[in-house]
Amino acid sequence: DAKTTQPPSMDCAEGRAANLPCNHSTISGNEYVYWYRQIHSQGPQYIIHGLKNNETNEMASLIITEDRKSSTLILPHATLRDTAVYYCIVRAYTGKLIFGQGTTLQVKP
Amino acid sequence: EAGVAQSPRYKIIEKRQSVAFWCNPISGHATLYWYQQILGQGPKLLIQFQNNGVVDDSQLPKDRFSAERLKGVDSTLKIQPAKLEDSAVYLCASSPLWGKNTEAFFGQGTRLTVV
């Protein structure tokens, strides 16, 4: 079973920041938080991952709370092309990726 | 760099028939995953290989599904016999050996319709 909880859906205005929350209260010390997104009819696309420090790349920022029980994915300037299902995943030491239901993000003009 | 290649992209079969899917991972990637994604749900892990050994196949319905990864490169997933509930997208993914900065890359998937 997935070790994460996400809201089923969210809306965001185009050009604004999209903040997607994720709860992972049972995460272990050596498990990473990964974020993927899936645009309709495509395979999941990697976005970002982290262990305990905040991370930033060209796509997004990942904020992990100090107790590591939750995290937030931030898309700084959402565009219509960011409309997708976003998955927050706790990745086990074996490399196993278990997907939950994800959050459907709808970016509106 | 070439991505994960899967074929075919689409397949329609009748129930009780057999079907096979093929995956060619990114060159040098030791880990290969097969996922099943039913419409409206998140991908479900069926099997994970490390080189040509199985790491996890706990969710693979072994009475009808089989998978192999000969020589630790390409992989095939087979369903025999197919049921209506096997209609789904079958995704293949690969990643380097597990480590701090490894990410898994997914193919486009094979959409299976069982009628």
Low-confidence stretches of chain A: none
DSSP, total strands of chain B: 11
Number of helices of chain A: 0
Could you state the order of secondary-structure elements of chain B as H and E? EEEEEEEEEEE
Specify the biggest β-sheet of chain B. 7 strands, mixed
Order of helices and strands of chain A: EEEEEEEEE
β-sheet strand percentage of chain A: over 45%
Share of helical residues of chain B? under 10%
Distance between the termini of chain B: 37 Å
Provide the residue-averaged pLDDT of chain B: 93
Please tell me about this protein's structure:
The complex is a heterodimer of chains A (109) and B (115). Chain A has a five-stranded mixed sheet, with no helix packed on it. A four-stranded antiparallel sheet of chain A has the order 2-7-6-5, with no helix packed on it. With 109 residues, chain A is mainly beta. Chain A has strands spanning 9-13, 18-23, 32-38, 45-50, 55-56, 61-64, 70-75, 84-91, 103-108. In chain A, a hairpin with a 6-residue loop joins strand 3 and strand 4. Chain B has strands at 5-7, 10-13, 19-24, 31-37, 44-50, 53-56, 65-68, 75-79, 88-95, 105-106, 110-114. Chain B has 115 residues and is mostly beta strands. In chain B, a hairpin with a 6-residue loop joins strand 7 (65-68) and strand 8 (75-79). Chain B is globular and about 40 Å long. In chain B, the strands form two sheets. In chain B, strands 2, 4, 5, 6, 9, 10 and 11 form a seven-stranded mixed sheet that branches. A four-stranded antiparallel sheet of chain B has the order 1-3-8-7, with no helix packed on it.
